[in-house]
Amino acid sequence: MTSWIEIGALDDIPRLGSRVVRTPGGNIAVFRTESDEVFALDDRCPHKGGPLSQGIVHNKRVTCPLHNFVIELASGQAVAPDEGCTHTHPAKVENGVVWLSVRQAAAVS
Amino acid sequence: MLDKVTKQKLVVIGNGMAGIRTVEALLERAPDLYDITVFGSEPYGNYNRILLSPVLAGEKTVDDIMLNTVDWYEDNNITLRKGETIAMIDRRTCEVVTDAGDRVPYDRLLIATGSNPIMLPLPGKDLPGVIGFRDIYDVDRMIKASTDYRNAVVIGGGLLGLEAANGLMKRGMNVTVVHLLDTLMERQLDPVAGGLLRKSLEERGMVFKMPAQTQAILGEDRVTGVRFGDGTELAADLVVMAVGIRPNFELAKKAGLYCERGIVVSDTMQTYDGRIYAVGECVQHRRQTYGLVAPLFDQAKVCANHLAMKGFATYDGSVTSTKLKVTGIDLFSAGDFAPGPDKEEIVLQDANRGVYKRIILKDKKIVGAVLYGDTIDGPWYFQHLRDGTDVSHMRERLVFGAANLGDGGVSGQNSVAAMSDETEICGCNGVCKGAIVKAISEKKLFTLDDVRAHTKASSSCGSCTGLVEQVLAFTLGGDYSAAPKVKPLCKCTDHSHDDVRRVIVEQQLKTIPAVMRFMEWKTLNGCHSCRPALNYYLLATWPGEYRDDQQSRFINERVHANIQKDGTYSVVPRMWGGVTTPGELRAIADVAEKFNIPTVKVTGGQRIDLLGVKKEDLPAVWADLNDAGMVSGHAYAKGLRTVKTCVGSEWCRFGTQDSTGLGVKLEKFMWGSWTPAKVKLGVSGCPRNCAEATCKDVGVVCVDSGYEIHFAGAAGLHIKGTEFLTKVETEDETLEVIVALTQLYREEGWYLERMYKWCDRVGLEQIRKRVVDDVANRKALFARFAHSQQFAQTDPWAERASRGVDRNEFAPLAELELA
Ligand SMILES: Cc1cc2nc3c(=O)[nH]c(=O)nc-3n(C[C@H](O)[C@H](O)[C@H](O)COP(=O)(O)OP(=O)(O)OC[C@H]3O[C@@H](n4cnc5c(N)ncnc54)[C@H](O)[C@@H]3O)c2cc1C
Ligand code: SF4
Ligand code: SF4
Ligand code: FES
Predict the structure, then answer these.
(1) Phi and psi torsions of B125, nearest 5°
(2) Cβ(B504) to ligand 1 under 6 A?
(3) With contact defined as beta carbons under 8 Å apart, do B775 and B769 qualify?
(4) pLDDT score of B412 more than 70
(5) How does DSSP assign B438-489, residue by residue?
(6) Residue B138 class from Cβ within 10 Å (0-12 exposed, 13-18 middle, 19+ buried)?
């Protein structure tokens, strides 16, 4: 079952920008696209752990600030030819309020 | 999505390199627009024709050179009708007719029929055993002949002829090359290089008969020999004609399309019938036909842009370079190398090493290059040729290549062929030769951009670009990097930096979306390359009017600190001219302790760097520094960074002027300004130059009688001494010239183009004329800079530390304590 947590107002996230949500399991980056969709991803680039929240957002993608990996916001997948994937979390907007459902990462073996 | 019935029909005639490249580019841009049918006479998918030479030489197989197998067509819903030839185009009904009489309708038609080998009209030319060198069928016949027969004659000593001869020789045949002239590859080589080439091919066992004219091909049921103009004869079981190609435009001509030496097309690759496009060797564009792949790929891109109904790209012609694909022979030629009264030549000949280089200059620019024996710098010369760089400042050392100019960190005297797979090619990203070769062959990469994208090689500092291009050439047997005359700003557009800057002014475009809309950007919000560039262009063009778009700023400029590898930041307060005070030092020490800043380090630009600051601490750190009177040092900015000074006449026994004071004055006037790339200044109090002013973007060297102003130096990835701009007598004039120079750079530089690159591109004289000689212009530039400074000189730290600007940027949106 998904449990939604209210994390703030949509307007507190800049368009084509991102804000960070702190959790004990690490930061989650919440992105807002030009058309006011929101996406939540672990704030860790699959390349070398760069903070994706600090990157430039374009369309439904973000470019990592450290070495320019481009990550799909919806899937967390790196855009080819780069390879790798960042963990995503369900996020939604209702009446200008952003909701997040933190999904525990699959146990790392 | 449009279904098959309603979709427009695109028919492609010719399943070769240019036609399919166009289709690929079209699919990238508009995957669902057309229902596509491709006709190809050859019974294969699409293959890399260029590599027929290594196939003939036994170095590759036909499977190795397939670019798109039949599956690819299926996967992309393309109907491939291989082995079918189009016999007629019916423009009245908009149909093509196959040789079997089948009619297929089109809404748009693409002709890419390539060319045919010229078969000299000699007696005996139709005998079995006389062939051209164009396709897999020809290669199969040559390979077969090499197992059954011994003697081959190749007519034509050009690129194609020599590659055919080399291949046949590798297959064990005795090969004689017959050439009409006394220089081999005379279209690419001068007589000296041609002679060197001949010598080394002779050493491998090739025989030459030249100059010689072939008069007849002898034989009854099959070729048995060749007779020459002088009456001599030579035995031959195989004759390969490689005397040239003829664009294949019969089909188009019969359909009434206007043709000269090829199908005549406009800059949008359209024929005289607007529904019909043409690309490749069959085309004549601006009186020029092409026989190499790179320009055809350019054409393909433009054609696809129009087929995809984007409708703004234009093809302006290409410059080409060639490389002979005979293993073990290094040969490179580009541009125009015929001698002329207005041309200068630089020649280097080293008989012992078998090296010959000839660089041809005109109006201070490289217009041609012929390299033999050592071709590592070929791509580097070619780059300068394409870019039209003013090379006068490196004229003396030009012939020694990039490595000897400090232009590029890697010196490469060895050809990449000799390197082991483990040799590191790209130092920045740790990519070795083997990985690049593997990516090229497995992923079917063609261009430098492809290799960059897939391996990251040459994607950072770029100094290994030449080497990567060599690996590419060596692996594929050719350099396919297309050679457009103008470089697009980034992948989101086909427009160049200059075009974008011009259109912003002409059309009074004042926001990023407005630019993207007007110039028909291919992506929704651009990308990390174009957005910062557009933001800068708008900021520089409309000071005070344009609102800086924070989301289009690279993180460092957005948060006014430098991101480090662990996601923390570094903070560098400004120290005017490198001068500090005990109070400032004390404040820095206090801040470092208060915020547990792990590293405090002195920078190369005479500043103190606090490294490892957490993002959320930044505003508080700045507030403390602000309280001690310090402001942002802009160490993160594409803008004015530092002015480095020596102690000058105030303390130094050699000092001629107050270099420190001048440096402070410059920095106080110029801080806060945004520029295309970072700008660093240096001021030295005498020619001993302790402030290292002559490797800065702008440097002042004080002398007894005034101030020498230098610029366009670099001391990073590239090392380059400055150019002397002018000498002036007063501090005020110094300031005026430097500010005007910087403003010109702000108005003309391409985003991320350092000042020395800008100077290379537009030329020292041009700049001097406008900044030094034309006094009115200088004053106007100065005034524009001063105007824009009104809006630029607010301390970004103070705004954020105490005025709450961008508060959200530094605080988390929420803190969750999850179970
Ligand atoms: C041996 C060899 C070595 C080369 N080496 C180099 C090199 O090192 N570097 C370089 O840049 N270039 C090189 N080239 C040149 C390069 O291969 C050509 O420039 C390029 O292939 C031309 O592309 P195209 O699409 O115009 O023609 P092609 O690739 O020839 O394609 C045309 C296709 O159309 C088909 N066709 C023609 N008429 C019809 C019709 N009526 N109906 C159906 N199909 C038809 C033909 O069968 C052919 O398959 C080399 C060429 C050869 C032959
Ligand atoms: S550059 Fe000249 S004036 Fe400046 S410190 Fe060195 S010696 Fe002294
Ligand atoms: S500080 Fe400069 S030289 Fe040092 S590792 Fe970083 S980029 Fe390279
Ligand atoms: S850490 Fe993101 S690209 Fe390297």
Answers:
(1) -65, -20
(2) no
(3) no
(4) no
(5) HHHHHTT--SHHHHHHHH-TTSSS-TTHHHHHHHHHHHHSS-----BSS-BS
(6) middle
Distance in Å, alpha carbon of B436 to nearest chain A alpha carbon? 14
Global ipTM: 0.87
Q: What is the pLDDT of residue B67?
A: 85
Task: Show the 3-state SS of B533-601.
Answer: HHHHHHHHHCCCCCCCCHHHCCHHHHHCCEECCCCCEEECECCHHHCCCHHHHHHHHHHHHHCCCCEEE
Mean pLDDT of A82-96: 92
Tens digits of per-residue pLDDT, B756-777? 999 988 888 889 999 999 999 9
**What pLDDT is attached to residue B409?**
35
Paired tokens of B665:
């004055």
Residues of chain A by 3-state class (helix, strand, coil), percent to 5:
5, 40, 55
Distance CA B106, CA B11 (A): 6
| pLDDT given for residue B798 in this prediction | 85
Determine what percent of chain A is predicted with pLDDT higher than 90. Answer: 78
Strand (E) positions, chain A?
5-9, 17-22, 28-32, 38-42, 56-58, 61-63, 70-72, 88-89, 91-94, 97-100
For the record, the structure tokens of B539 come out as: 């900021």
Q: State if residue A69 touches ligand 4 by the CB under 6 angstroms criterion.
A: yes
Q: Is residue B480 pLDDT above 60, yes or no?
A: no
- Which ligand 4 atom minimizes the distance to the CA of A45? 2
* pLDDT exceeds cutoff 50 at A109: no
For residue A34, the 8-state DSSP code is T
B404 lines ligand 1 (CB under 6 A): no
Closest-CA distance, B527 to chain A, in angstroms, reads 6
For residue A45 and ligand 4, the question of a CB distance below 6 A is answered with yes
The number of C-beta contacts closer than 8 angstroms across A and B is 95
Interface of A with B in 29-68 (CB under 8 A): 30, 34, 48-51, 54-59, 63, 65-68
Inter-chain residue contact B550 with A14, CB threshold 8 Å:
yes
CA of B716 to the centre of ligand 3 (A): 10
The model's confidence at residue B352, banded by pLDDT at 50, 70 and 90, is confident
Dist CA B139 CA B135 (whole Å): 6
Model confidence pLDDT, tens digit, residues B426-440: 766 667 888 888 888
CA B153 to chain centre: 39
Task: Copy the structure tokens of residue B809.
Answer: 């940027």
B631-686: pLDDT as tens digits: 999 999 999 999 999 999 999 999 999 999 999 999 999 999 999 999 999 999 99
- From A99, which residue of chain B is nearest by alpha-carbon distance? B814
